[in-house]
Amino acid sequence: MKICVLTTSFPRFEDDEASIFVKRLVCAFSDVGLGGFVIVPFDRNEKPREALGNFEIIRYRYGILRRGSLAFGAGIIPNLRSNPWLIMQAPALLAGLFYQAIKLRRKYQLIHANWLIGALPAFFVSVLTGKPYVITMRGEDLRLIKIRALRLLLAPIVKRASRIVSVNKSFLKDLNELYQLDQEKLMFIPNGVSITLPTIRELESYAKVHGYDTSKKYLLSIGTLVPRKRAHLLIKLLAEPAMAEFSLILCGRTNDSSYLDELNKLMHKLGVAERVILTGEVKPSEVPCLMALSRYYLSASEFEGRSNATLEAMAAGKVVILSDIESHREFIKHGENGYLFDSEDLNSVAKIISILEDNSGKRNLIEENARRFANNFSWEKCAAGYKLLFDNLLD
């Protein structure tokens, strides 16, 4: 079966972190016998065309008079917040997805649109060709359709889709409430988890090159440094007396200079600046080393889809301590395979960590439960779920 994958983000080169989960899914598609095309905007210096398993990656230029810069970097929505004038590039970006998909229409049977923005050109291709399309919705999509004007605008696209896949169960309930869709149209297919921990020698080498001390206790958090991720709460956590032995590694790019300034001022005000490490964007190949270095994985986010980094931390056998939000409650059983905390009660996080530091048996049990849970998810299983869906639609 040949499919056409539409996405506004995809790794541009080896070890690029841009929507790495989409690449992992496409590789898994090849493993289960699917093939076809991936259509994605061009960014800077990557190859316009390349092969990946059974797929051909096709990158198109969409900038007019200047390079297209809407799709990559922080992502479309954050880029627009930083520079609203980039909205002028949106028509060409969407038209490029549509043009490439319509040009290849005789070479595939079905369209897989990642995010609602990818579903817009899929809708028009479907109207013209009759080809079915499947939308995979992720965290930012739900935030968009909760805005009434956008929800109404996107309604025809959502309702025409053959199936809508969510990586998060709670999104399906919200989707049904917002659009009154048939239950058979909605599917939950979680992302896979992929992590291979380094050897002791590899870890020591990485620590030496990047200035980490393997004898220290580190807290780790991975995610774009934007206000909704609430990294400032994790910095405040370090000021708790029980956390004096810990340092915090904050990984992730930021295009929000004012928030970065806020974080820097806060860490100096609290006297914890020497124990906060801001790494910026990290390569996917670095994540296993950072996981292995760290004792606990934390997220204080106020909104998430289904955090890939958190599930990778669990697969790495880390105790994860997460904000008590719906998407985290979906897979964390408090006190069994991780912990949830109220963002207003950072002292409770310090207490959890103190208890686990004094009770290695309890910590080891939580780590093993986390590992066991995360091992239920693989990219091959994820791709097999999609293949079954595609087969049923084309049967």
Helix-strand blueprint:
Blueprint: E1 2-6, H1 20-31, E2 35-41, E3 49-52, E4 55-60, H2 76-82, H3 90-103, E5 110-114, H4 115-129, E6 133-137, H5 139-145, H6 148-160, E7 163-166, H7 169-179, E8 186-188, H8 200-210, E9 217-222, H9 231-238, E10 246-251, H10 257-269, E11 276-280, H11 287-293, E12 296-299, H12 308-315, E13 319-323, H13 326-329, E14 339-341, H14 346-358, H15 360-374, H16 379-394
Parallel strand pairs: 1-2, 1-5, 2-4, 5-6, 6-7, 7-8, 9-10, 9-12, 10-11, 12-13, 13-14
Antiparallel strand pairs: 3-4
Helix pairs in contact: 1-16, 3-4, 4-6, 9-10, 9-14, 12-15
Structure description:
With 395 residues, the protein is an alpha/beta fold. The chain has two domains: 2-192 and 378-394, Glycogen Phosphorylase B (Rossmann fold, 3-Layer(aba) Sandwich), CATH 3.40.50; 200-374, 3-Layer(aba) Sandwich (Rossmann fold). The chain is 44% helix and 17% strand. The protein is built from 16 helices and 14 strands. It has helices at 20-31, 76-82, 90-103, 115-129, 139-145, 148-160, 169-179, 200-210, 231-238, 257-269, 287-293, 308-315, 326-329, 346-358, 360-374, 379-394, and strands spanning 2-6, 35-41, 49-52, 55-60, 110-114, 133-137, 163-166, 186-188, 217-222, 246-251, 276-280, 296-299, 319-323, 339-341. It has an eight-stranded mixed beta sheet, with helices on both faces. It has a six-stranded parallel beta sheet with strand order 11-10-9-12-13-14, sandwiched between helices. Strand 5, helix 4 and strand 6 form a beta-alpha-beta unit.
